[in-house]
Specification:
Length: 337
Amino acid sequence: MKQNVPISTLTTMRLGGEARFVQEINKVEDIDTAYQFAKSNGLPVFILGGGANTIGLDEGYGGVILLVRLRGVEVIEERPESVVVKAYAGEVLDDVVKITTLRGYSGIEALSMIPGTVGAAPVQNVGAYGQQISDVVAEVEVYDSQTRKIRILSKKQCKFAYRESIFNTGSEVGRYFIVAVSLRLAKGATLHPPFYVSLQKYVDEHQVADFSPENIRQMVATIRAEKLPDPKIIASSGSFFKNVELSDEEAAVAREKGVQVWRENGKNVVNSGWLVEQAGLKGKEFYGMKVSDKAALILINESAKSYADLSLARAKIADIVWKKFGFVLEQEPVEIR
Ligand SMILES: Cc1cc2nc3c(=O)[nH]c(=O)nc-3n(C[C@H](O)[C@H](O)[C@H](O)COP(=O)(O)OP(=O)(O)OC[C@H]3O[C@@H](n4cnc5c(N)ncnc54)[C@H](O)[C@@H]3O)c2cc1C
């Protein structure tokens, strides 16, 4: 177990003070040992994968951070039309996408290049370019910190919704440590036109006719590389603000004012990146935090020295959007507290 580790080194936004304890979880038995250590010392626990959706505070974290490093990927079931692939939580999600698409399996190819681990993917039900992980989750193996037992949660029990699951919403948040995720993938292509807007644009412009999982992966990787920052080089947490949800009445008023309102999963949604861009903030920098000039939804840590800087920048951006549109922007990434 390590002590006094800067959270800035564990997260892609690269901010935050020290974590009092950090324990790598390399095998399943390590999980219970770490929880018992935390319990007997009266300390809270925070589970951390790649830190791509998590931000550290300046005061650091007085508890135990569990670094998910459980490895292994295997095909556990094979049928004529599909396979079930079980991947352990510490695997890099994109590595699993790469391996499975190379074998011609379909279901997660559009999730190519999403930073982070397999274990975090069900937490916010990661999605991109028309696919989300819940589409293919067969089951999730978890360590239950209440019973101290390993158990299997069915897809239904995970209560997946848009960027939501029981792991980040509701009364059971913090109860489960995700050990492994089993994905049912199809043999052969399952994504066909019309695709998600930016993917379709690429297909049209390049007159693509090969929609194999491997080719979709290549297209998505190219599109993403053009506008999204590589966390190895540029510090960010990806999408920084949640999309704004409106009631039908609010949506009607907003549309009259020229606001773009989308229907998504039965809800009225305003893209927060669109709001930030329309507020004239693309490329603008506040307190060392820059609104990406390629994708306004992304806030880049150019030279912020602290979480306090980020907090000031967030307030400034939210205030400008509020004054222009009357919508409240909320932060998407989780904070370690
Ligand atoms: C440049 C960039 C682009 C991005 N693009 C997308 C995108 O297209 N689509 C998308 O959906 N997301 C996107 N994200 C967000 C991010 O990649 C996802 O949220 C991803 O799942 C984070 O994985 P992680 O391992 O880094 O999670 P972390 O940040 O380490 O953890 C995220 C949350 O999951 C919890 N958690 C992590 N592992 C476990 C576990 N084993 N058991 C229980 N809880 C756990 C943590 O406690 C935390 O609450 C992007 C981020 C960046 C930086």
